Structure formats: structure tokens, C-alpha cells
Amino acid sequence: MMKPRIVRPSVETEVNEEFSFHVDMRVRELVGQGWTEEEARAEAVRRFGDMDRVKRSCRDLGTRRDVHMSRRLGWDELRQDLAYAVRQLRRAPSFAAVTILTLGIAIASNTSVFSVANAVLFTPPPFAEPDNLT
Amino acid sequence: MPKVGNRLLHGTLDTLILKTLSYGPRHGYAVARWIEGETGDAIQVEEGSLYPALYRLEKRGLLKSEWGVSELERRAKFYSLTDRGQAKLHAETDEWIRFSRAVTTVLRPG
Description:
The structure holds 2 protein chains of 2 kinds. Chain A contains 4 helices and no strands. By secondary structure, chain A is an all-alpha fold. The longest helix of chain A has 41 residues, at 51-91. The termini of chain A are far apart. By secondary structure, chain B is an alpha+beta fold. Chain B has one domain (3-107): Arc Repressor Mutant, subunit A, CATH 1.10.10. Chain B has 4 helices and 5 strands. In chain B, the strands form 2 sheets. Chain B has a 3-stranded antiparallel beta sheet. In chain B, strands 1-3 form a two-stranded parallel ribbon. In chain B, a hairpin with a 5-residue loop joins strand 4 and strand 5 (75-81). Chain B starts with a strand and ends with a helix. Classes of the chains: A mainly alpha, B alpha+beta. The A-B interface holds A 1-9, 14-15, 17-19, 21-22, 24-26, 28-29, 47-50, 53-54, 57-58, 61-62, 64-65, 68 and B 25, 27-29, 33, 46-48, 51-52, 55-56, 58-59, 61, 66-72, 74-78.
């Protein structure tokens, strides 16, 4: 019964199309019971009730569903990327060691040079009127 | 004739939908007809309760939906159960049986 997958339409189209499918199916059923096409359609719409209200609440729920879903997909992608990175590093341990060492040394030297420069060059000495020191 | 979402207990329709879809993917109309048929038309499923329930269940990750082609060669939206939906159905079924037994015990003429 489930045949090839069709691309998902926008939430609004989705709701409209789904509801008109429902009404058409009901019309078909009633016509099968001997109703005329016109009467059947009127009855199917009547049975559906306040269609605009139902459409509104479904559109709202559908929009929130999509937000949830894309958020979940985003996290899934991030997790996959991280897992891939870890796998790659595991596969080449010496490369990983060199990379980590390089980054470590670079960050450490950068931090210490900045700390010294900050203390010596940028922070004013802890006296009043430091410009008048002799 | 009782209508789900109206007079029946809150949450019953959700469980009935999950049960229906445990037999395989169906579109909304088929879900309604199946519940009506299974209960001998004792329960009439209102569209105004059915579709919001389907969308809500999908938002909660208990159902998923996919567009496909219906038995009449028309585009239709098919719902199916997720693993979480399956687990929820089991839990709700147990809960319902316990609850209805308790109520029956109280109501049974003594």
C-alpha cells in the first residue's frame, strides 16, 4: 500500500491536502451507500465540523512538530561529526598526539606571553600617578 | 452514539489511534474507519478530535508520517508507529485495563 515516497509539502499544504483527501474518501463511502454526489459532499463537510478551526490547530501543531524535528536533526548531525572526529583520531594515534601536543604548546605559549605582556606593558603599576614615577 | 473526544475519557482516542497503527501504516480516514468498524460503530470518531490528536502524537514523537499513494492511487498521508509509540501503547493498555477493572468493581451492583 505504501509506495514511493513523495517529498513532504509545507505544513499548510499538508493539512489542506490531508483534509480534502478525508472528505473525498467520506464522499466515496456515502455515494457507495446510495447518496448523490452532491448530498454526500455536503454531508461529509458537515460531519467534519468546523474545518477552519481544526485546520488552524493542526497547522499550529505541525509547525511546532517541524521545529522539534529540525532541532533533533541538528543535534544528530553534531553527534555524528564528533563521533567521526574521534574515530579518525583513534585511527591515527601518532597524528593525534602530534596535533594535541602542537595545539597544547601553542596555546600554552600564547597564554604565557600574553600574561607577561599584560602585566608588564598594559596594566598600569599599582601606584597613584604612575606617570610621575622616578 | 458516543463520540471520541467528546464524552469518552480524555486520552482514550490517543490510545485507540496507537492501537490502530500497531497493525501497520494507515491514513487518517482509515484510522477513523477502523476504530468505528472495530467498535461496531459504537464509537464515532470526530474529525475535529482525530486530526489534532494525530498531529499532537506526531509532535510528541509517538507517530511518524509519510506521504505515499493510497489504495485508490491518490496521494495520502500515512501515519505509522515509532518505537516510542509502541512502548506508549503497551503502557497505556496496561493502565487502561487496571483503571477499567477498578471502576467496574465499584459500579457493579452489589
